[in-house]
Amino acid sequence: MANQTRRLLWPIAGMVTLGVVLQVFSLLAVVESDAIADRSQQYVAVAADQRTTAEQFENATYLALVGLATANWELLLRQRASAQALAGRFVAANTAMLQGGEARTGDVMVMLRGVEEPEVHEALTSVWALWEETHAAHVRLLRSDNHSLKNNPDVERFRAASSRLTRALGDVSVLLQRRAQVEESRLAAVHGLTPIGLFLLMLGSAAFVIWRILLPFAASTEELARSEAALRLARDELEQRVAERTRELAQTNEALRHSHDGLEVRVKERTQELRDAQRRAVELARQAGMAELATNVLHNVGNVLNSINTSASILDERLRTLRVQPLVKVAELLESHRADLAVFMTEDERGRRLPEYLVKLGQHLSSTRDELLEMTAALHRHVEHIRMIVELQQSYATSSSIVEVTSLQELVEDALRINAAALGRHGVTVERHFAPLPHVMVDKHKLLQIVLNLISNAKYAVNDNPDGERRVTLRVERPTEDRVQVQVRDNGMGIAPELLTKIFQHGFTTRKDGHGFGLHSCAIAARALGGSLVAHSDGPKKGATFTLELPYRPEEQGSA
Predict the structure, then answer these.
(1) How far apart are the first and last CA of the chain?
(2) What is the DSSP string of 422-469?
(3) H-state helical runs in 462-547
(4) pLDDT tens by residue, 336-348
């Protein structure tokens, strides 16, 4: 019996050992195939993420160019930072795929080992070259002086490079997907062979058991009963775990629903707060612009008052020095010789010279009277200038926030009239280049605020120029069918390149007595008019040009 048991145990042990070895090798093959397939899927996911990153980089570049073209510096800085972050992410992912390392897919970081297939490696190398071309086109586009979105060679070059990069990434994705499909086929083959091996092993074991082992029917029945009981117990336990897990999932789902409802409420509240804050900011900017305009008007009135004060002082001085005393002496002399006036006028030396003296005195008084009349006329002109400034201010103030028919040429002339005293006192030469334009629909008050501020800034910019070389040029033109421009150019101190993006910021100023809100409020008013305000300068001591561009709304369209 013992020998028979040993004879049975050795074959059983051999079959079990063979089964274990086969199971181990099968498991290792499945694990390795799963790992290879997972890595292939990771490469596919990273390639897809790279394509998404390239598209987002292209969108961020366009939005940054829009911010640059519209002087929206907040949009420009935000999109430029986004483009830099996307560029870093793209470079990190491409390096990880070529050489190995960490790469991001969505919000998950994966570790890559680097591709080994020559075809995929060559495709990734070409992607790297296209990326450098696209990034160089991006940098050239944002540094270019041409900020137009249409007919811009830099935009076309960037769009072509980005398109080639996207197509190359698509080719890489196809190669990686093909590679993943091959790995999945291998994994499917391994999975397909494993059941066959197990089946053959089970078939051999069953044959061995049937051939060599004869077990009593009762024992087999008892074993079967025990197996059924164990299966029922396992089934009951599984059903219980499934029910518990279902309840947990239901509770989690309910909690997520409540959290989602609360999040929607908070988002709505925050959105309303942001809208209120924006409305308050616009109102404050409008009030600040009105204050800026009133300050400018008062400044020009003060310049005229200085001229009035000067003329009044000269008039007072001339009246005090008026020679009326000789007339009194001549009258006294004639009164003393009333009885012998004929003898006095013919025989007395003083009498004979008296007519000549009276002629010279009359000429002197006549010239003095002309000077006093000219001074009085100057006083009248200065008072009339103040009245004109006040009337212009009142006419524009009553049209605040009202879009109405306006002549751009007349509005610019009104701004020059308001600044006439200051420009004349500083010896500034004004050149006008006004193209004949039809009337447009615009908010006159906001537009006058911008033009007055630009003329005043230009006057200060040329103060350090020698006399006779202080020049301000104004242009009114229509560069395209749907846009009009008002341009103020000076030959003054100029603007450094690093300050061109800062001069429109709130509180930034280069003048000692400046407050840094003039150009900021002008930029806000320009956006409120649906236009833009940009500055250009070739550098210090080379003058500056401020261009206000507005949408062309003809009178017929506005009235309709």
Answers:
(1) 115
(2) HHHHTT-EEEEEE-----EEEEHHHHHHHHHHHHHHHHHHTTTSPTT-
(3) 518-528
(4) 877 887 777 788 8
Check residue 399 and give its pLDDT.
Answer: 47
CATH of 403-551, one of 3.30.565.10, 2.60.40.1120, 3.40.630.30, 1.10.10.10: 3.30.565.10
Q: Where are the alpha helices (DSSP H) in 321-348?
A: 325-336, 341-347
Task: Please compute the mean of the pLDDT values over residues 416-432 and round it to a whole number.
Answer: 89
Question: Which among 394, 192, 219 is positioned nearest to 290, based on CA atoms?
Answer: 394
**Helices 153-212/118-143 angle, 10° precision:** 150
Q: Global pTM? A: 0.38
For 421, residues 6+ apart whose C-beta sits below 8 A from its C-beta are 300, 303, 304, 307, 385
Q: Count the residues in the chain.
A: 560
Asked if residue 525 lies in contact with residue 449, where contact means CB atoms within 8 angstroms, the answer is yes
Identity at 213, one-letter amino acid code: I
DSSP state of 149: S
Task: Please give the distance of CA 328 from its chain centroid, rounded to a whole number.
Answer: 80
Ordered by start, the domain boundaries in the chain are 1-218, 403-551
- Residue 380 — very low, low, confident or very high, per pLDDT cuts 50/70/90? low
Report how far apart, in Å, the C-alpha atoms of 134 and of each of 63, 119, 125, 412 are.
16, 23, 14, 45
